[in-house]
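User: Sequence recovery, please. Input:
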């Protein structure tokens, strides 16, 4: 059970678009990257990042000076012992990277969507996660977005009337 004052360490594998760069997009509601979302959470300390792109990693390091950086996922996994590992690598690499991270037994993996390029790989990730008892979160919920919050307040205030139906798709 997580307590109010618990602190966790986190690391990010993949500091490209969603892992890091979207925090510079002024047209997006922030935080729009995993790096910035973790940084803004007072219960989390960002321990390190890993990426094969040296330029992106160097830029990331300028903004997260106290954190370690790695250019190789195997080196990262030897040295890093974070509670939370965010995996935001390109889709063809999800299976390899995720299975390696699962074997290190972090408290949580946040895996960027889509989980895998096909159902067989997704099921293999699920099988490993169960075997090693590592929870994996794949989340693209926007419930904290300002427009969602505004809609929620309008519904709760009944300024738009009673809800007669809800349509959703998945």
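Assistant: Recovered sequence (170 residues):
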């Amino acid at each position: 059970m997580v307590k109010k004052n618990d602190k966790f360490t986190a690391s990010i594998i993949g500091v490209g678009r969603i892992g890091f760069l979207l925090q510079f997009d002024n047209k997006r509601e922030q935080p729009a990257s995993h790096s910035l979302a973790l940084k803004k959470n007072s219960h989390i300390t960002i321990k390190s990042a890993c990426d094969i792109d040296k330029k992106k990693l160097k830029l990331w390091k300028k903004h997260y000076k106290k954190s370690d950086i790695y250019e190789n996922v195997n080196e990262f996994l030897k040295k890093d012992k974070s509670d939370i590992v965010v995996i935001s690598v390109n889709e063809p690499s999800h299976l390899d990277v995720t299975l390696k991270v699962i074997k290190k037994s972090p408290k949580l993996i946040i895996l960027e969507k889509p989980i895998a390029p096909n159902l067989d790989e997704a099921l293999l990730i699920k099988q490993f996660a169960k075997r090693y008892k590592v929870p994996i979160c794949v989340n693209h919920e926007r419930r904290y977005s300002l427009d969602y919050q505004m809609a929620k307040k309008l519904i709760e205030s009944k300024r738009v009337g009673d809800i007669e139906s809800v349509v959703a798709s998945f």
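The beta strands are 8-13, 44-50, 68-70, 84-87, 108-111, 136-137.
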